[in-house]
Amino acid sequence: MKITEMDAADAISTLTYDHLISDPPYDAMPDVATLRKYCPNGNIILFCDPLKRPNAQPDEILYWIKSPSTKNTTKRCSRFVEEIMVYRGKTAPFNNDLHWSVYTGVFTDTLIVPNGHPWQKPVSLMEKLIRIYTNPGEVVLDPYAGSGATLKAAEASGRVALGTDIDVKWCV
């Protein structure tokens, strides 16, 4: 697994990929029309704060119910739900050959690794999304790769993984 130091906008507009799956900073959500311009046929999957959705209506909204924690409770009560926006591509897959429990649209996966990236996602959650919305051999881009959970899940699922991050700390 390799994460390349690169600005997300540059990665999105210059790299070649089939699908984009990412957890962008919630205060800098990318424009979905721009993403679609560079990924016209593939699926685009974005994690988001329910109060800061992207600017386009998704085809599906999935939910990640996180484990309760006390972080981020100094100015408001914590939210333990993140939305996952799915924008289906013109010819993008939806693989329905997994166990029925994977298709509920509500995920409760937890992290089982030491503390690392502050917004890290469980590899098991990312693998479910990748297995549902991409095919083996296809290229998955995560332009906000951070801890690399999307890349690990893509490689474990027989997909080609491309990951970039602007913070050199996460580029390995």
Can you offer a commentary on this structure?
There is one protein chain. It contains four helices and eight strands; from the N terminus they run E-H-E-H-E-E-E-E-H-E-H-E. The chain has 172 residues and is an alpha/beta fold. It has one domain: 3-Layer(aba) Sandwich (Rossmann fold). Strands 1-8-7-2-3-5-4-6 form an eight-stranded mixed sheet, sandwiched between helices. Strand 2, helix 2 (32-38) and strand 3 (44-48) form a beta-alpha-beta unit.
Count of domain modules: 1
Quick one: CATH superfamily?
Vaccinia Virus protein VP39
Percent range for β-strand residues = 15-25%
Strand arrangement within the widest β-sheet reads 1-8-7-2-3-5-4-6
Evaluate the radius of gyration: 15 Å
Low-confidence stretches: none
Total helices: the number is 4
User: What share of the residues lie within helices?
Assistant: 10-25%
CATH topology name, in short, is: Rossmann fold
